[in-house]
UniProtKB/TrEMBL annotation:
Domain of life: Bacteria
Keyword Nucleotidyltransferase set for record: yes
GO biological process: regulation of translational fidelity; tRNA processing
Transmembrane intervals: none
Summary of the function given for this chain in its UniProt record: Required for the formation of a threonylcarbamoyl group on adenosine at position 37 (t(6)A37) in tRNAs that read codons beginning with adenine.
UniProt xrefs under InterPro entries: DHBP_synth_RibB-like_a/b_dom, Sua5-like_dom, Sua5/YwlC_C, Sua5_C, T(6)A37_SUA5, TC-AMP_synthase_SUA5
Annotated residues for binding of L-threonine: T36, H68, T121, R125, A145, S185
Organism listed in the record: Haloferula luteola
Keywords recorded for this protein, A-Z: ATP-binding, Cytoplasm, Nucleotide-binding, Nucleotidyltransferase, Transferase, tRNA processing
EC number: 2.7.7.87
Family matches, as PROSITE patterns: YRDC
Protein name: Threonylcarbamoyl-AMP synthase
Amino acid sequence: DETRIIQAEDDDMKDAVREAVALLEGGDIVALPTETVYGLGADAFNPEAVAKVFEAKERPSFDPLIVHISHARQLEEVAVVPPEIEETVRKLISAYWPGPLTLVLPKTDRIPDLVTSGQPTVAVRQSAHRVFRGIGKQLGRPIAAPSANRFGRISPTSASAVMKELGGRIPLIVDAGACRDGLESTIIRIEPGEKKPVIHVLRPGPVTKKELQNFGRVIVEKKRLIDAPEAPGQLASHYAPRTPLLMFERPDDFHPEAGKRYGLLSYKEDPKAGYLHRHEWAVVEALSPGSGKLAEAAVRLFHVMRVLDEAGLDAIVAEPVSETGLGQAIMDRLRRASTP
Ligand code: TXA
Ligand code: MG
């Protein structure tokens, strides 16, 4: 079956919005741009539509989806905010919504169990992307949308990347160009604490630990196991290219095998960093060429991983980035992508 791409132009997104809404209303699935990565959307209240998302992605049904609302008042349709954390939730929402922050909250009965994989909680966010918001508002219902890649693979940050992942499996991709952030949203769960609320980061993302510290004590959860699925998507191996991706603490730890083609996923192609001169790389791709800016690196990460994955290499060697600010989310994705 054919997958169409429809452009949502800056000055005219009406046709794209109309087509996407018609499909969603009919219980179909559509790839949609968000400010983080492209999502594969379905009407969150329609379990048959949600089932199509799992099928297209080949996603195991124990990995729940994020529900996207388009008005703050829609929150009560999907989630219940416990009174003990209400103030913190309110502050976080007013600081970051619409935007790349996802809250895990108790779900309402309207959310099908399939969306949450049978868990009593739902992950909710409000996307800041104008096209996504336009579609959500016109639909008037929340949209369940995981990233628009096949399960365990690299998240798409452009319509062409979605096409490579899901072409032939979905009817429509709404193309609004490259994603602004390039990394999936920060996912948190809030608990009341003794002095301050406790914010558990289940997945690091564009909203950083430092920013969240203004709202409570922040605990960044360590890797989760497959069978302890509080954040079931946080499977040890995720966002993975097909080519093995290796990461070493120090450049000296890398011992290339003779005759193999290696590509370097470099941070800024810094000759002093040691990786560049370590080896005759078949390909070098930099996340933030020259300048070494974490924001630029985040935006380019999945694109660069995809380019290297398509270069016919024996392995990709990723240079670690500093784990400050956005670097924490970048390193989280690199570790999950890397081969044990
Ligand atoms: O930026 C994003 O969050 C993108 C865009 C499309 O919004 N979406 C996204 O969805 O990254 P996905 O499905 O690829 O990742 C959602 C993550 C999964 O790791 C899942 O396990 C976790 O959210 N999650 C969903 N519901 C949860 C819940 N009730 N409790 C804990 N984790 C949950
Ligand atoms: Mg994903």
